[in-house]
Amino acid sequence: MDSDVSQTDPIQDILDLQKQGQQSYRQADFQSAEQCYIQAIHQIEILTTTNNNVADANVILIDQARCDVYLDICKVYIRQDKYDQATEYVQMSQRVAAQLDDLMRSARCLDRQGEIELLRNQFDQALHDLNNSLEQKLNVLGNYNNDNLDVAECYHYLSKIYCALDRYDMSFSSCEKALDIRMKHLGENDLDVIESCLLKAQIYVQLSKYDEAFSIYVKYVSITLGMSESASNLYVIANIYDGMGIIYNFQAKYNEALPLFEMSLNFRLKLFNGDHSHIAKSYTNIGTTYRHQLKYDEALSMHQKSLDIRLKLLGFYNIDVAEAYINIGYVYSYQSKCDEALSVFEKSLNIALKVLGENHTNPADSYSGIGNIYFLQGRNDEALSMCYKAINIRSKLFDENHDDFAILYSNIGRIHQNQSKYDEALSMYQKSLNIQLKAFGEYHPDVARSYNNIGLIYFDQAKYDESLSMQQKCLNILLTLYGNGHADVAESYSLIGYIYCQQSKYDEALPMLQKSLNIMTELGNSQPENSALCAAIGITYFHLCRYDEALLMYQKSLNIELELDEDNDLVVNLYTHMGDTYKAQFKHDEAISMYQKSLTISGENHDEVATLYDKIGNVYCAQSKYDEALAMYQKSLTVQLLLSEENHADVVSSYDNIANVYYHQSKYDEALSNYQKSLDIRLKIFGDNHPDIGQSYTNIGKVYCDRSQYDKALSMYQTCLNIQLNLFGDNHSDVATSYNNIGNVYSLQSDYYEAELMHRKSLTIRLGLFGYNHADVALSYGNIGHVYFDQSKYERALPKYKKSLNILLQLFGENHNDVARLYRFIGNAYFGQSKYDEALYIYRKSLKINLKLFGENNIQVTEVYNSIGYIYRNQSKYYDALLMFQKSLNIQLKLLGDNHSNVASSYNNIGDIYSRQSKHNESLSMYQKSLTIQSELLGDNHKNVADLYDCIGRAYFHEFKYVESLSAYQKSLDIRLKLFGNDHTTVATSYAEIGKVCQEQLKYVEAVFMYEKSLNIRLKLFGDDNSDIAELYTSIADVYLIEMKNNEALIKYEQASKIYVNIFGENYAKLAHIYANIAKIYDNQNKHDQADAIRHKSQQVDHNLQQKDGIDEQANDESKQNSDASEGSTGDILANIEDVSDLLIDHILDKISETSDSEISTDDESQDELESSSNFDSTSDSSTDDSQDELESDVSSKSSETGLNEKQTDVLEEKRYYNAYTKASRDGKYINAFMRIILAGPPNVGKTSIRRVFTKLGLSHGSSPTLVGEISDKIFDIITYEFYECKTCNFTKVLNHKIIAAIELFLQHTDQPIKNLNTSIVNITKDQIHTEYSIVDSTTQLPGLQEQHHHSAINFKIQRSIGAAPNLKVGGEYTAAHNADSRLGSELTATYATNDIQTDKSKLQLAISRIYQRLRLQLQDQSHGILDQQFG
Predict the structure, then answer these.
(1) How far is CA 1061 from the centre of its chain?
(2) What is the per-residue DSSP string for 813-837?
(3) How far is CA 1174 from the centre of its chain?
(4) Which of 164, 311, 457, 1132 has the most crowded Cβ, counting Cβ within 10 A?
(5) pTM for this entry
(6) How far is CA 1189 from the centre of its chain?
(7) What is the phi/psi pair of residue 77, to 5°?
(8) Contacts of 392 (CB under 8 A, 6+ apart)
């Protein structure tokens, strides 16, 4: 009995040591466990070697104990990462189990062996061994005992293997089986049960079921923390914290993940004393988190610690060491340290190849990492080679539907995408997607990622609808997997936002980007991701023209970046975006400052340097500093050519920018050459179906358009449109822009129907995309306004311009370039309506904005100066007009040099003023300068050249050089016909101008023919409701009237009057002229009642306009008093204004006295009335304070109430005129033009008076009656003075007095006497007429005027004469000679006829005209210098 006990005690000692070891193991005291197991093994060895006579039963017990202890110590070595030692003991255990023929223990050996293989990533072998183990166990236990804990262990490790192989369904099933068995036998709080639960959580993580996984971790962390703080519990808690941290990392909640990983590390440091694989794992997890937070230095430190431990534990040639190198390589790659990354990836590859050989996943992973570096280095072919090596390895290991292939196909797709091989890239991404769908189903993160990749390909191909569809699929998956609070969801929202931005759907983009930012903010990621989103939102605000909000978002992003790293690329981009925004706000100095900051950070060799040079050049362009801009663009091109090949997209942009400068400088050949270079490169890069190709065609079309090659321009724009429609469909902002461009060309071709149609298409698209309040919508309204404006439909253009303005004011406020431009357009419309006061007010608003934005030295400022100059020109304020045009020219010469189309236009404008001042030599000089520039820039066949020939023709016309005039007009016509064909408004203008020349040459048939050609074109273009049509009807009627074709003339006059009434109403100046001429026709036809009625109608128009003048003049006085001095009139010019006033007053007092004494005969009451109204004190303020309205009212009442005769009314009206004249002189409103002094007096005073003398025929340029006096040069260009009408005109004498007074005034102010000037003008003797008549009679035939009429007409047209008057005093009598009717015919004949002058009134008219022209030239020659000296 004792011997038996003694024999069994050693075995029990072994079993006790085994139990102690197991207890230490379960407490994670692996060192104590190892010691116990070693002691047990030692006891077994002693027992077997010293007791040879051990009973067979005891031998079996000893061998069983040996086998079990070998397996237990194997587990310890496994936990200590001592796989070789663990393997050694597994093999020893297997031999013992085989000797015992113990299938269960043999199965357990397979468990340990499978576990080691699993940890060594030998998954196939592990799966094979564990399946064998399970089969053996089930055979031993029988099917009815399959809930054994040994079976649970098999299921547990099989679950781990399936999870590693991404076979999550099988993994989950095996895990559930293991958990059920363990739960049944061990209870919920057992560590093996907890281990199975934690494995289940890991599977949930891989299935992206983070909520389920997290709930398990939360449950067991509370259970474990409630247990004793044993080493085993700490071990489990560390694993739980690891699992929770991994979930947070997957959810991009890096701030939450990091402290969990750090706590896990702390527990493991307590357990393993620093050098353990689990500690290395913690360092890896922390490093990965730092990498996601873009804290690359910290990440690198963690991964290096992990590597050091693994090198110490495992040596260099170990797969875990290779994995550590891969992690370090990824950090280097994110830091763009490609050389360092490549070095560690190659180390990883060498380890994997030596340890595992070529055909293993680890070398494949290294090849992938190396390929990624090659990709980042732009070594695309080498990158592809690495990827395909990885594919070849995996193709030997896995079937073609393994998810590793999906990753590799995705990497290959990315490389092709970088090579712009979009079809190949798409094919790879689709392969990847198909594998993932088959492996994981629809709702998996990798599937979402593939949809994202495919969407990015479509994005690069500008297939935005397809891209949006893919990104929406991606988003739906991510929302299903993660809910709304995940970083990947945020990224998906942002990508959708970017697509909307590319589609110009900024209103839709903004909420997407804002959602993304909100998610990232809630996740606590206030650093890099939020910075990028703030920048993207800023860009969106920029495109929505919400510039202040854009700047705010840029600043938020910048603040984040500056906290991280001041000199990163995003900081460069942010400064650049802020520069773009300041540029859009016309804060050019701030813009350049931002760009310079970007440039300083970038350094000279950064790929952004070229872009920054471009942007600085753009600012200089906006400031019209084209030379500086060109220098910047050339720098950009130099950098681009250094950094990339010739055929690169960035080089294209430099060529485009250089071309833009040449375009603005009107150097069209150079511009076209650079645009063509750009197009050629783009075609090589993108093929012929890409948005950038369309942009190149647009640029070339723009040049053709400016060169008046409209068919070529239209072809370019249409090509661009076709590309855009193919890419984007018909609802895209670029499509709208192309419709706009095509519409502009149609406008230039006078195809206004098509032009309006195109602009309305553009408007419809923009309204659909942007809504009402958007700058592009405002642009479309403005363009439609331009179409109406070009048709002279100003009343329809104005509402469109105002709509556009209202939108821009809401978007930008008052101080914006586009607002200034719209004000100018509105001013142009008022100008077209001859509403000069309104136009001037609007132009000044535009000028004020432009000066504030740009300062004076800017092209847009010159445009406003020109517009104001046109008003002054039409108001006959030539000094002021010349000042404006000269200002414009000086700025242009400074900015553009002397060979630019804008400079040519300014020369043209100045020439026009000289022409109107009858300085025809000077005007021709200016026109020739302009013509030289335009011909050199544009060639001979350009619309601008044609316009200049028009101006030259007009100058010759005013000098009576009709042959030269006709030649110039013909050149203009030839060019226009070549450019536009026959049906164009400018061609119509040419025909009309030629008609005027023919009329002056008395070639009436040719004149009517030309007028009718012009008329037919305009009717076709505009219809019959257009003021230009009415003017042509009037011109034809005037010729018919001269030819005494009364019926034909009457028809045309009635057609003209109908149009004028329809457009302008009854009170329009030209109607007075038409009605007066119709009255003459009726008189010629002996229809005197009808003549009187229509004549009364003419007088009524005059009267109504006269009343309106008083109101307009008073309002204008007030507005002028309030206007800025810098923008107003030139003010007082004469040295002593009182002398002028007194002289004129003295003169008129003398004339009134003389007239009253000699000519006025009334009853006493009437005489008293007259005297009381005539007596005024020239120095009295009261007289000068009378308003124009009061004076007109006074005259009207005196005429009607007292029955004053015609001569008495003359005196009252004369008094009223000089009263107003004196008042204006005293108020300093005196304009220094000689014509104004003679004909109109000061501005806004006496215009009605002069109108009544001179405007019976109206004005061809459509000026309102109020302004007639201020554009007397135009009146003199077109009016036929009607001597007959002057006989009954109240202001005949007033005009004569004014001429004499003005001449006397000049004589007083000069030491150079003009001998007999007064006499020469007002006394044309009968001898002079007789002499001239004889010359005319012998040399001139007057075709069409030989008919003998009882009341034949004398048509006397006086051209632009200084001091011209309709009163030529012949033998002391006032002569009148125009279209005499039967009642006055005999009187006229008696007046003109003498014994030695025949009664051919047509020849008599020409004789008088010749005399007068000589007198005019004599006056001009003698007074020219004096006038310049005295009056500028």
Answers:
(1) 43
(2) -SS-HHHHHHHHHHHHHHHHTT-HH
(3) 66
(4) 457
(5) 0.43
(6) 51
(7) -65, -35
(8) none
Could you report the per-residue pLDDT of 1249-1270, keeping only the tens digit for each? 444 433 333 333 333 433 433 3
For 1036, the enclosing helix (H) or strand (E) is helix 1027-1042
Please report where in the chains the tokens 């079809």 appear, as a residue: 423
Structure tokens at 1070: 């030209």
Report which secondary-structure segment, H or E, holds 1373: strand 1373-1374
Give CA separation, 559 vs 259, 295, 528, 599, 1009, in Å: 26, 17, 11, 19, 75
Question: Within 644-709, where are the H helices?
Answer: 649-664, 668-686, 691-706
Burial of 1360 (0-12, 13-18, 19+ CB in 10 A): buried
Q: Which residues of 3-35 are buried (b: 16+ CB within 10 A; e: fewer)?
A: eeeebeebbeebbebbebbbebbbbbbbebbbb
Each residue's pLDDT tens digit, 265-276: 988 888 776 677
1369 secondary structure, DSSP code: E
**φ/ψ bin of 650: left (φ > 0), alpha (ψ from -120 to 50), beta (otherwise):** alpha
Where residue 528 falls among pLDDT bands split at 50, 70, 90?
low
Helices (H) then strands (E): counts for the chain: 66, 4
**HEC letters along 279-325:** HHHHHHHHHHHHHHCCCHHHHHHHHHHHHHHHHHHHCCCCHHHHHHH
Q: Which residues contact 463 (CB under 8 A, 6 or more apart)?
A: 727
Distance CA 108, CA 274 (A): 31
CA pair distance 445, 955, nearest whole angstrom? 80
CB 490 within 8 A of CB 251: no
Helix (H, G, I), strand (E, B) or coil at 1374: strand
Token pair, residue 1164, equals: 């006493």
Residue range 1146-1162: mean pLDDT, rounded: 37
Residues 1151/1218, Cβ–Cβ less than 8 Å: no
Residues 554 and 533: their CA atoms lie apart, in Å, by: 10
> Residue 377 phi/psi, 5° resolution?
-85, 0
Q: Which residues are CB-neighbours of 534 under 8 A, at least 6 positions away?
A: 517, 553, 554, 556, 557, 560
Cα 1190 to the center of its chain, rounded Å? 55
Quote the CA–CA distance of 778 and 764 in Å, as a whole number. 12
Give 656: exposed, middle or buried? Use CB within 10 Å, 0-12, 13-18, 19+: buried
